[in-house]
Amino acid sequence: MASTAAVPFWRSAGMTYISYSNICANIVRNCLKEPHKSDALAREKVHFTVTKWSEGKPEKPTTRSDDPDV
């Protein structure tokens, strides 16, 4: 039987490492003073491209963002 003593606290709280690291990154970014805070918040935005495939050929890619204003 596996021991639970070595389980990281974020795992025992029911979180994944990615969600834990995102929370930590947000805390650090919010603790920064200006102008470093606005620079870090600007780098936080994510843009990605989605390409659907139909009959073995790619369709026109669409660019998406996590920012609702874009």
UniProtKB/TrEMBL annotation:
What Gene3D superfamilies does the record point to? Answer: ATP synthase, F1 complex, epsilon subunit superfamily, mitochondrial (1.10.1620.20)
Superkingdom of source: Eukaryota
What are the record's GO terms for cellular component? Answer: mitochondrial inner membrane; proton-transporting ATP synthase complex
List the CDD domains.
F1-ATPase_epsilon (cd12153)
Protein's cellular compartments: Mitochondrion inner membrane
Q: Name one GO biological process term.
A: proton motive force-driven mitochondrial ATP synthesis
Sorted alphabetically, which InterPro entries does this protein's record hold?
A: ATP_synth_F1_esu_mt, ATP_synth_F1_esu_sf_mt
Question: Could you tell me which SUPFAM superfamilies the record lists for this protein?
Answer: Epsilon subunit of mitochondrial F1F0-ATP synthase
* Listed GO MF terms: proton-transporting ATP synthase activity, rotational mechanism
Role, per record: Mitochondrial membrane ATP synthase (F(1)F(0) ATP synthase or Complex V) produces ATP from ADP in the presence of a proton gradient across the membrane which is generated by electron transport complexes of the respiratory chain. F-type ATPases consist of two structural domains, F(1) - containing the extramembraneous catalytic core, and F(0) - containing the membrane proton channel, linked together by a central stalk and a peripheral stalk. During catalysis, ATP synthesis in the catalytic domain of F(1) is coupled via a rotary mechanism of the central stalk subunits to proton translocation.
Record text on subunit structure and interactions: F-type ATPases have 2 components, CF(1) - the catalytic core - and CF(0) - the membrane proton channel. CF(1) has five subunits: alpha(3), beta(3), gamma(1), delta(1), epsilon(1). CF(0) has three main subunits: a, b and c.
Question: Which protein, by its recorded name, is this?
Answer: ATP synthase subunit epsilon, mitochondrial
